[in-house]
What we know:
Elements: E1 6-11, H1 19-32, E2 36-40, H2 43-48, E3 52-54, H3 57-60, H4 82-94, E4 99-104, H5 106-117, E5 121-126, H6 142-162, E6 166-171, H7 178-187, E7 191-193, H8 202-214, E8 220-225, H9 231-242, E9 246-250, H10 262-280, E10 286-291, E11 294-299, H11 300-305, H12 312-320
Parallel strand pairs: 1-2, 1-4, 4-5, 5-10, 6-8, 6-9, 7-8
Antiparallel strand pairs: 2-3, 10-11
Helix pairs in contact: 1-10, 6-7, 7-12
The protein binds adenosine-5'-diphosphate and 6-O-phosphono-beta-D-fructofuranose (F6P).
Amino acid sequence: MGEVKTIGVLTSGGDAPGMNAAIRAVVMTALASGIEVKGIMRGYAGLLNGEIIDMDEKMVSEIMRKGGTILYTARCKEFMTPEGQEKGAQVLRDNGIDSLIVIGGDGSFKGAQALSNLGINTVALPGTIDLDIACTDYTIGFDTAVNTAVDAIDKIQDTSTSHERCSIIEVMGRNAGYIALWCNIANGADGILIPEKEEFDEQDLVETILNNRKKGKTHHIIINAEGIGESNRLAKRLEAATGIETRATILGYIQRGGRPTAKDRVYASTMGAYAVDLLLGGATNRVIAYKSGQFTDYDINEALAMKKTIDEYQFLVSRMLVQH
Length: 324
Ligand code: ADP
Ligand code: F6P
């Protein structure tokens, strides 16, 4: 394995608040060790187009408190082909980049895995609001997204109470229910629908709403994960079954933007620095994780083989805290 001289960094897939803190940490840690850093714009799409810039400290000052990613992000089908990956590895070699840090979700990890197989040293950072990566209990952006959603739901709760309504609130998460689960507990919602628990009983939810109304509750919040979707239809069905005026709100992309929380800044910075350290130690095909209260790293192949499940105890707590 050759000496690390130039590290490339890119962000890929859905953006997430905290990605900028990770980029900043990569740049500052690498420069402090005398390593050059190049930023690759627009994920793997920009890599294939040779959109590569030199990074210095000035470019990363003042970025930590900003949402989004200064390197932009993209999804790129061409990079999913062996030809695209070979071309990407060649572009990296042509630009003198021997090592690459990829910040993204598990789709992006597969790209890093492919490049490692082609001789580029790669380390991936879990960057997604969805918390849907099996090897880690934390992903960059989840904390900010949940706080944004909780804040929005608090506001909806105000108007829902004034009108004595029921509100269905759909949160992001792709096929994972973690954002929904956290919002459910944090907002004291009456019910939750998540893809991991598809065997959900709608009649049970109707009864919970009616019982809570009998006990004097004047509004009801139901958190629906995007992986279940169909919030407007659900609102119509619940209104018909309960006789309570019901509205649906899809929170959408608001959850992906905004100032990163302190937790996202600190964890993303730690992961960025850790990634550089791993590369300097000769590692490749690794993913950084936060597991059982510690920062650690896994082989990407091993990480991709793991299956993410919902935290059963947390789910139980969310059920217990619903009034019946
Ligand atoms: P995320 O990284 O958030 O999971 P995607 O699944 O959309 O988001 O993946 C982001 C990008 O990673 C894709 O657009 C593609 O360029 C790359 N990618 C995804 N899957 C693969 C794969 N099997 N091989 C190589 N690259 C991939
Ligand atoms: O992965 C993050 C995420 O925001 C998911 O929650 C959502 O399903 C998806 O990205 C939306 O992606 P796009 O930006 O392509 O619409």
